[in-house]
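Side project, low priority. Logging it here so it doesn't get lost.
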Amino acid sequence: MIYLDNSATTKIDSSVLDTFNKVNSMYFGNPSSLHELGETTTGLLTQSRNLIAETIDVKPEEIFFTSGGTEGDNWVVKGTAIEKISFGKHLITSEIEHPAVLESVKQLENMGWEVTYLPVDSRGIISVEKLRHALREDTVLVSVMAVNNETGSVQPIEQIGEALKDYPSIHFHVDAVQTVGKIDLKLGEQSRVDMAVFSGHKFHGPKGTGFVYVKKGRKLAPLLSGGGQEAGLRSGTENVPGIVAMAKALKLISEKQAGTQTELTLELKKYLDTKKNIEVFSPDQRAPHILCFGIKGIKGEVTVHALEKRGVYVSTTSACSSKKKVESSTLLAMGIPKKRAETAIRVSLSEDNTLAELKSFIKIFDEIYQSFKVIQ
């Protein structure tokens, strides 16, 4: 098996899985319980929070545990809208955000909030100048993802932060799910980013885990009310085994380099550029682990299934939309016509992929490509 769908999910690291199983079997107490077992699990939560904060260079009290990226994005978008409703009802986002953001702002739009959707250029990048022009007195949130999960486009987060320096009351939210181990995202006091969302299964942690960075002093309304966990902002009994395992996964990946992924995607791009019937949709300047392309005249799902029969796993575009058999909204926003967007597949690498795997993929893909040429 050659697994090249790491933007959808990564394989859990074996040592991380060992940690999960150990905590799950030995430290199963509820952190809210007063007895010793509860105190022990509370200590594990504290250690995990401290480790995550240290790894991404923020304060422990700025880390809040969630179930993953979708919950995190929903919480920041809706929590900001609820918390800051007295300041205004205008939100700004881009046309190529993850559905967790786009569906959240659409829900708010149906409830009376105004939303500005920033367009992107042919590279999938927003214009900071257009963002400046979109800012209003009643704007309460700017939400822009750091790395697009379909094409790997990297947004100018620092420049957006500069544009927002004169608007301290606006929350700046970044979906950072595709950044871990890939690009450097500056957070903390020196950064204008107020909230950043992370998902454990994107960096070899367990599914159902995640965390949100919320800069100290910024306020979000809770979406989950109940027992008052996570400083009253995210109630619900904590997933202690998952959180401890996620913290370990984050620490492990922070010690690795993304250089190999850069080399592999460049090698793949070099091969694709020799084929006249292949169109590469990802921009040259992108995150190192994603390459989106298509065979002209062949729908992406056909290519995906042809590769699957040979033991190679890729996806069409976003895992959240691929089973719905819809074309990539990101590619359409980039100005790529529908027929061409329907051909897209996404290869996404992890730190575990090797040059030998990539060469095997190219050989298998080339055979499929040649067979498609016969029927075109």
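Brief comment: DSSP finds 13 helices and twelve strands in the chain.
Revisit when time allows.
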